[in-house]
Design goal:
Helices cover 42% and strands 14% of the residues. The protein has 123 residues and is of the alpha/beta class.
């Protein structure tokens, strides 16, 4: 499964993202677009993702535990959001962030990580 967490250039109209979604589809991955931001920020991206590919699954307002579980069930995560990257890193899920990601994401990538076992999320 490919989970896409939109923000910035991680969006349905970006050609690189479209290519990666096609690649994931060619590997029989389910493609899920999941919001981890405000509806005003992510709603248009999710709507556009579904217009471009009606077969994608859309998760609009997951709570923290549901978002963590979704990312933990993924084979790959594309994220433009800090917490999408953190949830992937904590569970050892491969992730992609764009080169022009915000500073806090770029700096977090350089830090050593401590992996969490699946199912240890607490809220």
């Amino acid at each position: 499964m490919l989970t896409v967490v939109p923000a910035g250039v991680i969006n349905p109209h970006n050609q690189h993202n479209q290519h990666m979604v096609r690649l994931a589809r060619s590997l029989d991955y389910e493609v899920v677009w999941m919001s981890m931001g405000a509806p005003v920020d992510d709603g248009t991206h999710l709507d556009n993702a579904q217009l471009l590919d009606p077969t994608v699954r859309i998760i609009r307002r997951p709570g923290p535990a549901a978002a963590y579980a979704q990312i933990g069930a993924s084979r790959l995560v594309f994220t433009g959001r800090y917490h999408g990257m953190i949830f992937a890193r904590a569970q050892g899920i491969p992730f992609y962030v764009s080169e022009d990601a915000p500073y806090k994401i770029r700096m977090e990538i350089c830090r050593p990580i401590r992996l969490m076992r699946r199912g240890t999320w607490r809220h």
